[in-house]
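Researcher: Let's do a round of design. I'm pasting the structure tokens now; please hold your answer until I've finished.
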């Protein structure tokens, strides 16, 4: 669901809106916008904004990353998003990730995991994902940005970042995606047997 907030941050930029200085301009546009995931023929999900697919290059752009927390902390935006995010669960058996899935979006979910890693580990992953070389100065800067976003997200009034009381916390430092997925699958298998 983070990509959904990123899509709104991208749309805010496209419309010349600064969500921190003028959140009302953003919320005024929400009724005319459509944002939803669609299940494609290959059984993957694609995010669409106003009927057009929106891809990771736009969603992960630095200028979007810089304002996504500002967009996400606007109560009217979170309210508008809630229905759209819950709609995702109607697409079938689904694995959802996001900062408030287990606490706000789907508190009734059978399995809830709070997956985290240190800011430095997350900075390494972000730089690797973007193909950048992880120089110490760059790594420290990205880690500081991640810590700042975590602070904003965990202290906001509306849907703060926190684990659900019944979530299993997994710290993933030193693990790759496959190892994380296998670990979670084992936990699920054990609970189903």
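Researcher: That's everything. Go ahead.
Model: Designed sequence:
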């Amino acid at each position: 669901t983070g990509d959904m907030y990123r899509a709104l941050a991208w749309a805010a930029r496209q419309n010349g809106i600064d969500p921190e200085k003028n959140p009302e301009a953003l919320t005024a546009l929400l009724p005319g916008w459509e944002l939803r995931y669609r299940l494609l023929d290959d059984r993957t999900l694609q995010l669409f904004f106003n009927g057009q697919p929106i891809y990771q290059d736009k969603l992960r752009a630095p200028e979007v990353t810089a304002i996504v927390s500002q967009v996400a902390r606007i109560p009217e935006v979170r309210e508008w998003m809630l229905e759209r995010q819950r709609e995702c669960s109607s697409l079938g058996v689904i694995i959802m990730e996001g900062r408030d899935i287990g606490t706000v979006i789907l508190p009734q979910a059978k399995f809830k995991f709070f997956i985290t890693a240190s800011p430095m580990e997350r900075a390494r992953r972000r730089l690797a994902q973007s193909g950048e070389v992880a120089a110490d100065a760059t790594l420290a800067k990205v880690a500081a940005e991640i810590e700042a976003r975590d602070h904003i997200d965990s202290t906001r009034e509306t849907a703060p970042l926190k684990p659900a009381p019944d979530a299993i916390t997994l710290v993933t430092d030193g693990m790759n995606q496959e190892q994380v997925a296998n670990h979670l699958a084992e936990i699920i298998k054990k609970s189903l047997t």
